[in-house]
């Protein structure tokens, strides 16, 4: 029974592409399915999540890229805030037990086109201290069908 179970397990592992063979199984090797953004802005966080199909667990890594560019190894979430203008080349990779896939792309980093705030904007107007006094008079009017109450003094 043990021999049969061990042979069955070996066949399953080989069929899934997890065995000791040198040829990756194309059905379970990773494939990157997302397209990265081609532009970024200096000082603004670059948003990209690398998504891949394939047998899990998938492991993401940075092959090459600018200083400060990082990718989370399990989620594929990229973190980077460009510091200068120009074109940067990036290459990311995803790997599992059945193989690997890489994605190379360029990002064109431009400068800000609008004003840059280096301080917090004011939250209230300064120097505008005007006060107004509003005088009102109130008169009580009984509603229809209500009897006026008589108060004893």
What does this entry look like structurally?
The protein has 153 residues and is mainly β. The chain has a domain at 27-110: Immunoglobulins (Immunoglobulin-like, Sandwich), CATH 2.60.40. Helices cover 10% and strands 28% of the residues. It has a four-stranded mixed sheet, with no helix packed on it. Strands 3-7-6 form a three-stranded antiparallel sheet, with no helix packed on it. Strands 1-4 form a two-stranded antiparallel ribbon. It is elongated.
List keywords for this structure.
single chain; 153 residues; mainly beta; Immunoglobulin-like; 4-stranded mixed beta sheet; 3-stranded antiparallel beta sheet; elongated
Principal-axes shape call: elongated
**Biggest β-sheet description:** 4 strands, mixed
What is the CA-based Rg, rounded?
Answer: 34 Å
Tell me roughly what share of residues is in helical segments: under 10%
Low-confidence regions: none
Q: Please state the second-level CATH architecture of the domain at 27-110.
A: Sandwich
Q: Average pLDDT, to the nearest integer? A: 79
How many helices? The count is 1
The count of strands amounts to 9
Report strand %: 25-35%
Instruction: Please give the alpha-carbon distance between the first and last residues.
Output: 105 Å
CATH class call of the domain at 27-110: Mainly Beta
């Amino acid at each position: 029974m043990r021999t049969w179970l061990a042979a069955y397990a070996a066949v399953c592992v080989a069929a899934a592409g997890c065995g000791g063979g040198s040829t990756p199984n194309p059905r379970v090797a990773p494939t990157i399915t997302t397209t990265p953004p081609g532009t970024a802005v200096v000082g603004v966080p670059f948003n990209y999540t690398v998504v891949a199909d394939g047998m899990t667990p998938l492991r993401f890594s940075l092959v090459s890229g600018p200083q400060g560019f990082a990718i989370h190894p399990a989620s594929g979430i990229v973190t980077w805030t460009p510091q200068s203008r120009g074109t940067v080349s990036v290459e990311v990779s995803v790997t599992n037990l059945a193989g690997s896939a890489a994605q190379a792309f360029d990002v064109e980093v431009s400068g800000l086109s609008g004003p840059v705030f280096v301080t917090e904007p004011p939250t209230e107007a300064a120097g505008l201290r005007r006060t107004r006094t509003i005088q009102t008079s109130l008169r009580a009017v009984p509603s229809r069908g209500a009897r006026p109450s008589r108060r004893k003094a």
